[in-house]
Amino acid sequence: MGPMIAYLGLSVTMLSLAVNCHSDRCLVGNNHKTLPSPEPGMQACTKYSQSSCCYANYTQQLNVSPLIKVNNMYWNTCGQLSPQCEQYLKNVDCFYHCSPHAFHWVNPNNSYSIIAVPICRSYCDDWFTACKNDRTCARNWITDWEWNEQGNRCKNECIPFHQMFKDGKDLCESMWSPSFNVSSSNCHCLMLDDNNDDIIEHLLTHERGTATPAQDVHQDVDRSPFCQQRYKKMQKKKIKAMKQWIFFLPPNALATIHSLSTVSGC
Ligand SMILES: *[C@@H]1O[C@H](CO)[C@@H](O)[C@H](O)[C@H]1NC(C)=O
Ligand SMILES: *[C@@H]1O[C@H](CO)[C@@H](O)[C@H](O)[C@H]1NC(C)=O
Ligand SMILES: *[C@@H]1O[C@H](CO)[C@@H](O)[C@H](O)[C@H]1NC(C)=O
Q1: Angle (CA) 131 133 137, round 5°
Q2: Which of 37, 38, 42, 46 shows the shortest CA–CA distance to 193?
Q3: How far is the CA of 181 from the centre of ligand 1 (A)?
Q4: Phi-psi region of 15 (alpha: psi -120 to 50; beta: other; left: phi over 0)
Q5: How far is residue 92's CA from residue 197's CA, in Å, rounded to a whole number?
Q6: Residue 106 near ligand 2, beta carbon < 6 Å
Q7: What residues does each domain of the chain span?
Q8: What does the longest C-alpha to C-alpha distance in the chain come to?
Q9: Which of 106, 117, 118, 124 is the most exposed place for a label (fewest CB within 10 A)?
Q10: Strand 180-182 versus strand 117-119 pairing type
Q11: Which residues 6+ apart lie within 8 Å of 51 measured at CB?
Q12: What is the pLDDT of the chain when averaged over all its residues?
């Protein structure tokens, strides 16, 4: 019996080592766990349910639309955000609170913030498109507020996102600055609507996940089999999203979508 138990104990240790092989940890914060673990009961941020830095109960407040307030912070300071814009902000919140990978980009000066997470240009462009007609008074949603006991209030006037930010890159790099930087690679970067497990593993083995390694390095890696495969997946996802709008499209658009899917081999 003894050796059997010892053996079992050893396997459990090895298993947990395997799970933590990329030393995933959690950022520090009121809503962060110490270490990521499964959270089967999540109502939002479910892409992280297999390994999450937030408790399931944290996500209850995100499973609401329109979203008025998350923790201490009002999201509707310039009126209600559109559902599609809100979704991008939720993705940021989920990444920051729940992703077991966010810690890879921890700020060396404090463990509650992240710095220069490499984010994909195309994701930022879609984010900009989703929010461009919504309104905001803050260019930086971390710093540009007046705070009182009730929460955050506008310091500046409300203007449309498309006036506040120049484009997707400006939005991604300014709104939560210094958290995200647009990667010069279209492959070595995160899409926050994804759990990003495969790309993060790839980043960590290839370049430690820095936002801006030399451009020529990227041109090579972007041709690698891994990246080719990732592009294919991204394209498939885009086509799937387009197909959800199919009922609103004229018939010739269907033919276009069909030929697009044929070209991308899916
Ligand atoms: C959320 O759940 C965790 C773990 O189950 C618990 O420790 C914590 O107090 C809960 N928080 C709230 C606000 O209910
Ligand atoms: C961390 O603090 C040091 C010393 O104050 C400073 O020089 C450095 O720029 C800071 N790093 C970041 C990423 O903020
Ligand atoms: C991230 O972007 C900011 C603003 O564009 C820039 O100042 C900074 O150097 C970039 N950081 C990295 C690591 O590329």
Answers
A1: 80
A2: 46
A3: 33
A4: alpha
A5: 16
A6: no
A7: 32-206
A8: 72
A9: 106
A10: parallel
A11: 19, 24, 36, 37, 38, 100
A12: 83
Residues 91 and 14: beta-carbon distance below 8 Å: no
Three-state DSSP class for residue 76: coil
The residue-averaged pLDDT of 134-139 equals 98
- Report the distance separating Cα 81 and Cα 13, nearest Å: 46
Query: Helix, strand, or coil here: 112?
Result: strand
CA 247 vs. chain centroid, Å, equals 29
| Residue 233, pLDDT score | 87
Distance in Å, CA 109 to ligand 2 centroid: 6
CA-CA-CA-CA dihedral for 224, 228, 233, 239, to nearest 10:
150
**pLDDT bucket at 15, cuts 50 / 70 / 90:** very low
Angle at 230 between CA 124 and CA 170, to 5 degrees: 15
- Whole-number Å distance between alpha carbons of 27 and 111: 6
What is the chain's alpha carbon radius of gyration, rounded to the nearest angstrom? 21
Angle at 10 between CA 5 and CA 12, to 5 degrees: 95
Q: Which ligand is nearest to the CA of 169?
A: 3
Neighbour-count burial for 159-174, b at 16+ CB within 10 Å, e otherwise = eebeebbeebbebbbb
Return the pLDDT at 6.
Answer: 41
Residue with CA at minimum distance from ligand 1 atom 4: 55
Residue 13: predicted pLDDT: 36
* Cβ-based neighbour number of residue 189 at 10 Å: 26
Residue 215 has pLDDT above 70, yes or no: no
How many other C-beta atoms can be found within 10 angstroms of the C-beta atom of residue 232?
13
pLDDT in the model for residue 16? 35
Task: Give the count of alpha carbons within 13 A of 63, CB side only.
Answer: 11
Cα separation, 40 vs 52, in Å, equals: 10
